[in-house]
Structure formats: structure tokens, C-alpha cells
């Protein structure tokens, strides 16, 4: 596909340990076809600092003004989930391509509204793990019959978040109303990678627990109240007929964070392994298999860590690739996680519709 120069404006590109700083910024800087046209934060000082540090063409203390600027093609929304709704709608109204971090909305209803607002226009949701070269090659091995009919899969996916200790800036993850928690983030990314390889999940059972109901805020010593699970086990079936067990765990030490996906078929097996303290979506994975396979494609940009898969997203937007996960997938992922939550709450199996096409 032919590339075009893509001019990106990022909302939330703060120099103070922001997600954009470790993922979006290095990804854009490493891609020849993508330019950081602008940054926007809540304050003039931080916006100026971000523009200077990241080499942005413009800075804005008003994100809505950035959306209206003709120098911006793509508006990236990299802020807390409760702020997504208004920013995404405004960026769509401004006629921009919108790249929003996952989850898209704080609830299934809000996600459906935002996905409907985007319609058929180009959009991107931050489920970037499915674009990792090893995940794409694993999907090809399975689709090509390399391991025969998929039978069983086992997944362990861990996060250093959602444990016994947190910090005040991240306390909002503990509130159910924030829309950002172990289920919607860690489990959402994990099961999206499973679906990228094995097809859509068609039914789920689940059990969820809150193992640390009162995590300590490391910076203040105070106790927070956790309103959401920090551990979930999922038993599921996919459209390919494979039976899946997945353990999604919070509170793992950063150095021990891991991801392991073991798939067995009638004629062989494959594994995907890796993991980072940010979660499975934020790093490279290694593919091994009993079946012969071509080495995964080289990453589109010479970056490491969280920028690896985000760079694949921007490269896909620049070429108009249909492989870029969009708001329709965001809606599906949110409905899937809602089904997991319902199964965990009721102890009953939940059946899911399969996306058309």
C-alpha cells in the first residue's frame, strides 16, 4: 500500500511519565511517514515543555483548538478513560482520524455510542498487541493448518499493576466508574490477542477476585479501596473450536511480569511468550512452533518496549491498512469483557455473537 505523510496531534503527551511518552512519541519519531505535528496537555507550561522535548511542530493548552488545526490529520487520545468521550466526539466532529487508547469508553453503552459516531470513517483503538509481528505470524500458522485443528490453549498474562501497592496518580484505576481496570485493560488486551490467533470467543465462564481490597498508596502511606477485581480466570471457547483457559493476574513484581500463550492442535503446537511490566500489548513476543514457519516480519520501526506495537498502528494508518484495529473492534472487545464480568458475577456461562465478516 502507498504511504502518505501522516501528521499526528497527541492529547496527553506529557513529559512526566505519561504513556504517550514511552509509546506514541518514540514510535512516531522512528517512522519516516509519520510526523508529530502537535501536542496538547491541560496546562500551557506542560504543553510547551512537551513540544520542546518531543520535537512537536505546535503545542496547545486547549485540545479542542488542536483538533481544529489543519496541520493535524490524526488526533491521538492518550488520557484517562473518563475523558475519552468528549475528546473523541469532538475530534470526529472536526473530521479527524481518531486513535484512542483502549478501552474506548467507560462502559459498553459509551463505547457503542463512540463507535457509532465514527461509523465507517477510519479510526484506531489501542489494541495494538494483535499487530505484533509474532502474533500475526501465529495467526497465519493456525489459519494455514500448520498445527491442524486447534484443540486447547492456555494463557497466563500478568501485570505489575492492580497489586498490594499503588500510588496516588494511579488510584483512579481502583474505581469501577473509571472504566480502566484489570478486566478492561489487562484482560481486554490478552483476550484480543487470543482472538487474533484463534478467532472470536463465542462463550465464556469466569471467576474474578479482589485479592488486595485495600492497596497501600506508596507515596502517601494511605490505604485505597479497590472496587474492581485484581485477578480473573477465564474458561472460553473460540470460533475455531479451541477451548481456552486464561489466568489474568495483577500485582506481579515488575521483573516477573510475563505472558505465555500455549496452543495445542491435532498436528502440533505453538507458543507466544514475552511480557512487560506494562502488559502484553506493550512489548515484543517470541513465537515458537512444532510446525515450520517463516520468521515474523521485522518491526516497522527500530524501537523497543511499548513503542514496538504502537509503531505498527501508525504505519497501518499511514498506508490505510485494514488490519488496524478500529472502533468496531473496540466495541466488540468491550462487549467481550462485559460478558466476562457477567459470567464472573453470576457464575453462569455467557454466549457471545460473532462479528460479521
In short:
The chain has 357 residues and is an alpha/beta fold. It is built from 10 helices and 16 strands.
How is this structure best described in words?
The protein is α/β, with parallel strands linked by helices and 357 residues long. 31% of the residues lie in helices and 24% in strands. The protein has helices at residues 19-22, 24-30, 44-54, 63-68, 84-93, 108-118, 133-143, 182-198, 307-319, 327-346, and strands spanning 6-11, 34-40, 58-60, 74-77, 97-100, 123-125, 150-158, 165-166, 201-209, 216-217, 231-238, 243-249, 259-265, 268-274, 285-289, 350-351. It has an eight-stranded mixed β-sheet with strand order 15-14-13-7-12-11-9-16. Strands 3-2-1-4-5-6 form a six-stranded parallel β-sheet, with helices on both faces. Strands 8-10 form a two-stranded parallel ribbon. Helix 5 (84-93) packs parallel to helix 6 (108-118), helix 7 crosses helix 8 and helix 8 (182-198) crosses helix 10 (327-346). The model has no long low-confidence stretch (mean pLDDT 95).
Amino acid at each position: 500500500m502507498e504511504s502518505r505523510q501522516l501528521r499526528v496531534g497527541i492529547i496527553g503527551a506529557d513529559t512526566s511519565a505519561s504513556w504517550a511518552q514511552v509509546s506514541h512519541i518514540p514510535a512516531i519519531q522512528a517512522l519516516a511517514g509519520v510526523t508529530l505535528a502537535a501536542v496538547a496537555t491541560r496546562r500551557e507550561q506542560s504543553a510547551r515543555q512537551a513540544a520542546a522535548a518531543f520535537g512537536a511542530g505546535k503545542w496547545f493548552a486547549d485540545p479542542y483548538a488542536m483538533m481544529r488545526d489543519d496541520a493535524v490529520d490524526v488526533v491521538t487520545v492518550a488520557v484517562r478513560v473518563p475523558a475519552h468521550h468528549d475528546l473523541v466526539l469532538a475530534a470526529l466532529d472536526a473530521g479527524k482520524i481518531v486513535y484512542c487508547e483502549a478501552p474506548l469508553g467507560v462502559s459498553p453503552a459509551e463505547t457503542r455510542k463512540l463507535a457509532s459516531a465514527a461509523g465507517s470513517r477510519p479510526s484506531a483503538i489501542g489494541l495494538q498487541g494483535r499487530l505484533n509481528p509474532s502474533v500475526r505470524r501465529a495467526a497465519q500458522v493456525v489459519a494455514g493448518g500448520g498445527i491442524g485443528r486447534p484443540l486447547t490453549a492456555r494463557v497466563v498474562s500478568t501485570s505489575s499493576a492492580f497489586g498490594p501497592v499503588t500510588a496516588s496518580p494511579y488510584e483512579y484505576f481502583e474505581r469501577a466508574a473509571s472504566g480502566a481496570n484489570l478486566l478492561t485493560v489487562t484482560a481486554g488486551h490478552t483476550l484480543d490477542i487470543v482472538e487474533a490467533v484463534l478467532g472470536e470467543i463465542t462463550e465464556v465462564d469466569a471467576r474474578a477476585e479482589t485479592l488486595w481490597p485495600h492497596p497501600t498508596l506508596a507515596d502517601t502511606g494511605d490505604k485505597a479501596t479497590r472496587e474492581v477485581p485484581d485477578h480473573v480466570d477465564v474458561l472460553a471457547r473460540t470460533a475455531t473450536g479451541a477451548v481456552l483457559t486464561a489466568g489474568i493476574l495483577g500485582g506481579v513484581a515488575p521483573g516477573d511480569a510475563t505472558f505465555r500463550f500455549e496452543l495445542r492442535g491435532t498436528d502440533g503446537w505453538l507458543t507466544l511468550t514475552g511480557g512487560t511490566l506494562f502488559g502484553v500489548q506493550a512489548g515484543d513476543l517470541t513465537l515458537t512452533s512444532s510446525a515450520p514457519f517463516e520468521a515474523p516480519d521485522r518491526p516497522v520501526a527500530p524501537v523497543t518496549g511499548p513503542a514496538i506495537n504502537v509503531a505498527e498502528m501508525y504505519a497501518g494508518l499511514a498506508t490505510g491498512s485494514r488490519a488496524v484495529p478500529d472502533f468496531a473492534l473496540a466495541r466488540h472487545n468491550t462487549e467481550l469483557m462485559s460478558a466476562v464480568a457477567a459470567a464472573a458475577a453470576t457464575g453462569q456461562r455467557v454466549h457471545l455473537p460473532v462479528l460479521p465478516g
